[in-house]
Amino acid sequence: MNPLVPLSILLLLPISAVLAVLFTDTGIEPLLFRHAVITFAILFAVGGALSFVASKLADRSNA
Prior knowledge:
Elements: H1 4-24, H2 30-62
Helix pairs in contact: 1-2
Keywords: Membrane, Transmembrane, Transmembrane helix
């Protein structure tokens, strides 16, 4: 198993807590919640892509 999987799960816990607070707070604009979700999704995808590329480069350098 990739060692970044438990780390990503650990990072998703506070992110989901922040999103839950944004979603349940009545004073928050729905557009702010939407953009927060999009931002977290983009950052998660970029982090995953960087992790994937780094693991492929490490495998290539070891071969």
